[in-house]
Amino acid sequence: MQDPERPIITTATRQVYASRWWQVEEHDVVHADGTPGMFNVLHCGDGVTILAVTSDGDLCLIREYKYAIGRHILQLPSGGVDDGEQPLQAAMRELLEETGLAAATWTSAGIVHPYPTNVAATVHLFIAHDARPVQDPEPGIDLLRVDRDTALDLITKHEVTHAASLACLLTYLLRERVHPPAGGG
Fold first, then answer.
1. What span, in angstroms and rounded, lies between the C-alpha atoms of 156 and 42?
2. Dist. CA 185–CA 175, nearest whole Å
3. Is the whole-model pTM more than 0.85?
């Protein structure tokens, strides 16, 4: 009898590609109805996405070129969690490296699974409160400060398309709507 919590049975797994950062596997499977199938699974390590909020309430986005889609996009600072590193440590490192910003207060905004059918990774979302510049941003990255209304406008106009950035921004904006900061700001 098939487990309803795991309706697909894996019958074989083969590694078809490996690099320093990524491994791709082919999985032969049997679906709940008995039909055979196959999944490709990408193992690429966990990541982080960070919304930096300044002391005056501005939200910090970046504009960066993305090779796979061949264009610049607006998104939040993001990157990988290195071996032996905790997600919060990675978030602090990535924010500093990409934007030159640091923050003393951090909160979790949850997690997302970017493409769970084929990508075995979790992206940890963080809010960096009272972010302030402490060094220059990484070359090739433009740092933008926007208010909440502008951020919503960018989202509704599909100018922010990075999935983890959308999840982090919307989580923050919805929390702020339900629990506005002291002083109504």
1. 30
2. 13
3. yes
